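Working notes for the structural subgroup meeting. M.R. asked for a predicted model of this chain before we commit to crystallization trials. I am recording the input and output together here so anyone reviewing the notebook later can reproduce the run.

Input as submitted:
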Amino acid sequence: MNRLREHIEEIISLTDEEFDYIKTFFTFKNVRKNQFLVHEGDEVKFEFLTLDGIYKVFYIDGNGKEHILQFAKKDWWMTDYIGFFKEKNATMFVECLQDGAVACLTLEGREKLASEFHKMEYFFRAKLTNGYIALQQRIILLLSSTPQQRYEEFSKLYPDLISQIPKKYVAEYLGVSRETLSRLYSNNK
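Returned structure, recorded in token form:
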């Protein structure tokens, strides 16, 4: 509960009464390694705030190849956003890579909080804006950089993740083979 408040108050300030009301919109869940929060084909009921643990958001293409769109660690938001905002079934998966906990928020709850509290509307807008910027940066990096540059940027942005996530997932995220990642890793030691 305190982690949720600290996270929100990184952007806006809240009174105790406001936070007491806001927290009623969230449910909290402990998550085990290899547990799915979202599974392809399921209804996407929640957006998740990572309180603890590490997660991956991915989809599997028609050839059975896994493509990782996002890793999420403490204080990051995640879900299948197409399914969540368009109220459609999931086309992606959200899987826990390391035991953790999440705060769960429904779309209805998010919309109600945003309409009742302009501060929360600002909070959600700031989070969405930051996520959109990060997504564009990731796409640009994937389109216009070498594997070496992608690896260096990932290592710089997420030094803690590089040691906590299995190398095969890092390779998938960077769009390189496991062998290429091993070479890149060796070159940067």
